[in-house]
Amino acid sequence: MEMRSHLGRVRGLGSSNQGIQRWWVQRLTGVALVPLCLWFVFSVVGMAGADVETVTAWVGRHYNPVLLILFIVCMFHHGQLGLQEVIEDYVHADGVKVVALILVKFGAVVLAASSAFAVLRLTFGG
Amino acid sequence: MADSKANSKAKSTRPLSPHLQVYRPQITSIMSIVHRFTGIALAGGGVLFCYWITSATYGAEAFSSAQAVLGSWLGQLVLSGMTFSLFYHLGNGVRHLAWDVGWGYELDKLRTSGWLTVIFAVAMTVLTLVIAYSAAGGG
Fold first, then answer.
1. CA-based diameter of chain A, in Å?
2. Do A45 and B57 touch (CB under 8 A)?
3. Is A34 in Cβ contact with B90 (below 8 Å)?
4. Cα distance from A78 to chain B (closest Cα, Å)?
5. Gap from B49 CA to chain A (nearest CA, Å)
6. I need a labelling partner for B36 at 20 to 30 A (CA). Which of B43, B59, B82, B109 fits?
7. Contact A86, B24 (CB under 8 A)
8. What value does the mean pLDDT take over residues A44-69?
9. pLDDT tens, A103-124?
10. Can you give the pTM of this predicted structure?
């Protein structure tokens, strides 16, 4: 005997209306990454082969730590969304797909946290 | 039993959409594929970035060995590829943003914006490499 109401059975089966959110955040991080990438590339390219003192001084200078952390958050979030899209398009075996999605998400968060922590450490020393 | 048999039969006769090699390569399709490939490559670039900046927190020795890895011939090759991927993905990303607001869907505009993106990516890559090699003292 079916104990659930009609509403209870259909709830959650349709679009959760979260697709637009992911699409929007991908655009939002993309827009933010345009100036952040240009700033980052033209900052680090002059430090090709530089020693640790030069790079540490650059990381901590003025507004650089803030820009670096914004760059880190936007880049790894944008990258995670992009890889998720590729996986959802091409990986059709459920098990592999879920594992790949989890690894990409965990990987992005770990890399972002490690990079941001490195920026703080280089800025404040220790 | 009968069900699974019916299923496998349905699977084999179900029509597939034509694969990529059916179509004549055009700048629009090639650029779309390259956008994905450069995006995947740049995810690897994120790993390299994390390696580079965290190695600086481990002291002078760790950082100079990271710089040596990135400065090796393989490192230079990978970083040059990353530079092109970045500028291509950035330029084509802006092209995508223009489409999102409804601009540039006409065929002539698609081709023009496509070639402009390619020219932008190549020019910016050359400029970046020139700055990099002059900063590193001729590589």
1. 73
2. no
3. yes
4. 9
5. 8
6. B109
7. no
8. 91
9. 999 999 999 999 999 999 999 9
10. 0.85
